[in-house]
# Entry
Amino acid sequence: MAMTKIKSSDLPSSDRVSPACIKYHKPLSKKKKKSVDMDAIGTPANNLLLDLMRCQVKHPNINGGSDGKRGGSDAKECVKAEKIYSACHAAVMGVGNFKGRKHCGDEMEQLFLCVSPGASLS
# Structure
């Protein structure tokens, strides 16, 4: 996957974020010129983005509906993506690599795309 950085413009608008997750969205959306490196596991900005995405997985009904859909993404698919990321994170922090890589950028990107329907990626 090519994308390894997320800018504030890549984030979904606040009306597409679950009310329970706004506290994670606000600090990221205020950093207009700073981007979050998805490969930089453990950095404060990376952790904040991860907190936002995990919150969105826990609160899937961001469209106000009760069907568990996120504008095309099934909530169960996002739970699966979060579990894959968690496995990668544990491996990188434990033995130092996951599938031969020293970061979880690809897994984090998949999780971001799942929990951020309609988000523009540059």
User: Anything to note?
Assistant: The longest strand covers residues 5-7. The chain is about 45% helix and 10% strand. Strands lie at 5-7, 35-37, 69-70, 73-74. Helices lie at 22-30, 44-58, 75-94, 105-115.
